[in-house]
Amino acid sequence: MAVREICKGVYSVGVIDWDREVFDNLLPIPEGTTYNSYLIEGSEKTVLIDGVDFGFEEEFITNLARSGVSKIDYIVVNHSEQDHSGAIPVFLELFPGAKVVTSEKCKEFLKIFHNIPDFRIIVVGDGETISLGDKTLEFLITPWVHWPDTMMTYLREDKILFSCDFFGSHYATGNLFVDDDREMHYVLAKRYFAGIMMPFRGKVKDYLDRLSGYELEIIAPSHGPLYKDTNYIIDAYTEWSSDKVRNRVIIPYISMHGSTEKMVKYLTEALLSRGIEVRPFNLANADIGRIAMDLLDAATIIVASPTVLFGPHPKAANIAFLANILKPKARLVGIIGSYGWGGKTVNSLSAMIGKLDVEVLDPVYIKGLPDEEAYAGIEKLADEILNKHKEYNIL
Ligand SMILES: Cc1cc2nc3c(=O)[nH]c(=O)nc-3n(C[C@H](O)[C@H](O)[C@H](O)COP(=O)(O)O)c2cc1C
């Protein structure tokens, strides 16, 4: 990525990872990502905000060389995760006078991940500031979005918030700012929120409240493009972190020989005919990131699985486990599927989603191919979902 000026004395010096397809070996990122790093030149001190991932050291250092900077006093580390801190050891070697500025918790992690010695680290507390001469950095300690170490940095004079992963998106784009690609960006930012921030919705709300006390002209996250229209992403985060659910059912399903699939197809039709949005996801080849995104605001989740070796199909177990840790705001959960001779699929799946604060519907779990009685059971299930959605006032 070229060095680009954001405003006077503030530059983008990070890198674009056009080819990355999966993050954390867990969530697909269909549009790549960026690792954003920012250079701020004050009248007395020069600072770098965050670094880039392992493997991008050369591009990163080249950017710094191109920027013409000869001395960097501090590198602010908002979050120690390796996609931001991977290149920091190389940076510290090349800039021996630079000190890391970070939170107490982040310092702990920088030591265990990179063995950075104490004398290179300055710990800052919540609300503390550092003067760069004509510019001032204020630190906001904001843990748990999404690690215990996360913080944000506010550049007072230019009203720029370096929010790190908060407000991020996995979107490899040459545009420095979100531009006329907002529709595309919105989906990617929502996907990012669902996969990274959804389990911490309470903290997200707290920090949105806190940020409402700051004038924000630019938000500069650590992934994806920056925001000049800061309300756009703040409004989106406000909605995504709210308790509001949509009149929508998502049905992650898997079927080996077609019985469960027939039930899913029937349920899909039954719900559509009742005016309920439905999105079945065939787990054989489903994009887990896309499912996470839909989990964000669906009122109801129906997991559909046959019995395999006395329990749920592993692909269904995987999605139940994922939903349990991502903690979506769904209010209603159901289980449907087919078995041959016996097992504990319903019990096992129910236990896997035990952390979710939901009402659990009666399962429709049948032997073999669905028959008239099974379809009647699905009609009843669709009615129950309809009634609940009416109760929730979302129809
Ligand atoms: C590898 C395998 C293991 C199975 N294990 C069990 C089992 O432990 N208990 C059971 O009731 N049925 C078991 N079955 C039978 C299926 O659950 C049954 O055929 C079901 O109707 C399949 O649903 P589907 O057509 O949606 O795949 C197994 C089937 C397969 C292929």
From TrEMBL:
Annotated GO MF terms: electron transfer activity; FMN binding; metal ion binding; oxidoreductase activity
SUPFAM superfamilies attached to this UniProt entry: Flavoproteins (SSF52218), Metallo-hydrolase/oxidoreductase (SSF56281)
Top-level taxon in the UniProt lineage: Archaea
InterPro entries for the chain: Flavodoxin/NO_synth, Flavoprotein-like_sf, Metallo-B-lactamas, ODP_dom, RibonucZ/Hydroxyglut_hydro, Rubredoxin-O_OxRdtase
Signal peptide annotation: none
Gene3D superfamilies hit by this protein: 3.40.50.360, Ribonuclease Z/Hydroxyacylglutathione hydrolase-like (3.60.15.10)
Residues of the Flavodoxin-like domain: 249-386
PANTHER family per the UniProt record, alphabetical: ANAEROBIC NITRIC OXIDE REDUCTASE FLAVORUBREDOXIN
Record protein name field: FprA family A-type flavoprotein
